[in-house]
Structures are given as structure tokens and as C-alpha cells.
């Protein structure tokens, strides 16, 4: 059993096991890293006070916005090309590294030179050089992570990510005890990030020997051509992400914003799930796209089924118990956000599969072709918000965003389905059936006045056994990977 677990979690054996292993480690990494940083946030907010922590947060947030000019998809292209062209992996690693250095230098100039021109918060400017260092260190560490992802060694990334989080916590706690100022808190973050980068360099040392000697000038243009659609998609996605909130701020009230963002918070947490699954399958999809189309199709179908296995019960539960969930999270004062919350729960059925299909687009190298649909979605979002917010307020903003996402993602979904030939509905028939049963049970429990926590617990306990009884293919595939093979 020990050997089976070791093989399951620390080696790449089969396609399904490797994807499952990578998803597990990315999930653990993100969860632990976020939990560790929450400790710093809570303690720093208490020690520095609202004003001091506000200065630190604003400096990080304003500088973080500038990363849109350095995060142009270089890492994604490195992963894709290294997997598809292993004989040129050293050349791609070296060339993308130098491009990344130039982008990080540009980021530093923007942070130190531009933010002071628009900043109105006292105390922020002295933090900016340190914040620039933090983001450069984080950018280099993230570049290292793309190497591990191309090798499908997400367990290494997870270990370094957790180590970095712990290093930041230790440094921050010491600083907050001896030198409790926003500036020295930023220094503590920089120290933790530096230690994380050192760990990354050490873990990748065998792959970095040729980093300085394999720069290939001829690859610069193809890399930039491949990345510019990703950069634009990222920028348009950022605009689409904030369109509803910004337009609601212009056309609504502060109370509207509070109700809207409260309903939106759970969604922002949940969309991490398909992002992690997508990151785990990208190397495999990139490897299979030109070598084994049937396996490419099968992996895409399986990934879509897995995310729908998660999205369908969450969306159904969220819609049925929306009033109780909002009351539990925020209290009776936020009852007006229930309808908005239902729309956001419904949108999970678009964003979850859309994220996975997006990875297929990258693996196929067709991001430039589909950019126009993302732009169309963003423009549709603006137009619908302008029309629906005056009519329906916060419900109109949520509906506009959902319809815009549905339009853009729907077109991309059907285009990729035509290209690859994958089928989703036949793969999730049993999942839909199990979700319907869960929905009926939840409605019954709600009518009986059963406590929401108890209802959620019952639904969670019943869902997996239902899928097992129904012999859902996704559960069968997971069982074949997780359970050790019996000796003949």
C-alpha cells in the first residue's frame, strides 16, 4: 500500500494517474499557501491597524495590476512548446527566460515610475521599490514553476509553494513583532519570496545548466506571435471580470456594490477548481495533440466530465439553498443578493467547462483564432450591463455577465467540439441523474426546516455513493487509478 501511494503521488505512470497526481498537488499547494497567507493577513491587520495595513494592501494591489503587462502567457507557451518539441526544450527555456527578464524589468519601471504619478495614498511610495522586488521574485519563481509543469512534476511546485508561504509567515511574524510597519512587512514578503526563488533554482538546477547558452534569436518572433493573443485574452478577461462591478459603481449605489460583491465572493473561490484541473491537463493535451488524437479527445472528455461532476451539484445546491447560504455567510441584511447569487451559481456550468476547453484551445495553438470571440464577449458584457443595470439593478449586472460568458464560451465550445469531435452529455448523464436526486432531497429537507449545515452534510454524504451505485464512468476511472491492483 505504501509503495502504491508513493507511485500514485510522486511518479508519472499512466496518463490518468499523472493528471490526477498533478491536480492533487496543485490543489494542496493552493489551499495550504492561501491558508498560510491568511495567518499573515489577519495578524498584520491587527498589528498595523486599518491605516497601516491599508497602505500595504494598496501598494500590493496597485503593483499587482501592473503585472498584466508582464504576464503575457510566456509560461504557457514554454509548457506547450517544451512538451510538443522536446528536442528544442532547452532553447525554449532559455529564450523565454530572457523575454521574461525584459518583461519583469518593464514591470519594475512601471511600478516605480508610474504608480507614484497616480497614487494619492500617503506612505505607499516608499513601499514601491520593495514591492517591485517582490513581484520580480514571484515572477521568476512562477517561471520556474512552468518548467516543473512542462515536466508534469507539480509535486515539486507544491513543495516550493508551501515552503515559500511558510518563509513569508515566519519573516512577517518576526518583523511584525520587532518592526511593525508597512515597509518592513513588505521587506518580510520579499525575504520569503527570495527564499522561495532559491528553493526553485535548487530544485531546477539540473535543467538550468544551459539556461545562458541556448538563447535562440530565431525563436523570439514565434514565441511573441504565440503569446500576444494570450496577452490580449488576459487583458480582455480582466476587463470582463471587472466590467459588472465598475458599471454598477457608476450606475448604482455603494449598497448595490456591497450586495453584489458579497454574492460574488464564493464564485471567485470556486473558479479556482477548473483552473487547477486545466493546469494539470495542459502538458498532456499539448503532448497528445499531434501524436494521438483519440487520446487527446478522451482526456478532454474526461476532464470536462470531472469538472461537471463538481460543478453540477455545487450549482444545484447553491440555487436551491441560496437564501440559507447568504443568510449563513452574511446575515439577513444581504437577503437582496440571493437572486444574484443564484445567477452566479448557474454561471458555474459555463465557467467550469469553459476553462477546460480553453486549455484545449492553447494545446491546439488556436488562441489567435478564438480571440475575437473573447472580445465579442467583453463588448456584449458592456452593452448588456448598460441596458440591464437600469432595469434590474444588481440582478441585471449578474445576468449581463452570465449571458456574455455564455455567448463567448458557447461559440468557442462548439467550435472546438467540431474540431476535436468530443461529446460531453453522454459522459455526464449519470452525474445529471445523481444531481437531480440530490436536488430533490435538498428541497425536501428545506421544506422540513432542516438546518442548512445538516442539509449540506447529507447531500455531500449521498452524492458519491449515488455515483458509485449508478456506475458513473468518471468514478470508475478514478477507482482504477486510486485503488492498488490485486495480485493475480
Automatic annotation (TrEMBL):
Annotated transmembrane regions: 91-115, 127-148, 160-179, 185-203, 223-242, 267-285, 306-332, 338-358, 394-416, 428-446, 452-470
Entry's localization field: Cell membrane
Keyword Transmembrane tagged: yes
Bilayer disposition of the protein: Multi-pass membrane protein
Keywords: Cell membrane, Membrane, Transmembrane, Transmembrane helix
Cellular component annotations (GO), alphabetically ordered: plasma membrane
CDD domains, A to Z: MATE_Wzx_like
Chain coiled-coil ranges: none
UniProt key word Protease: no
InterPro entries registered for this protein in UniProt: Poly_Biosynth_Transport, Polysacc_synth
Any Pfam family matching the protein: Polysacc_synt
Protein's name according to its UniProt entry: Uncharacterized protein
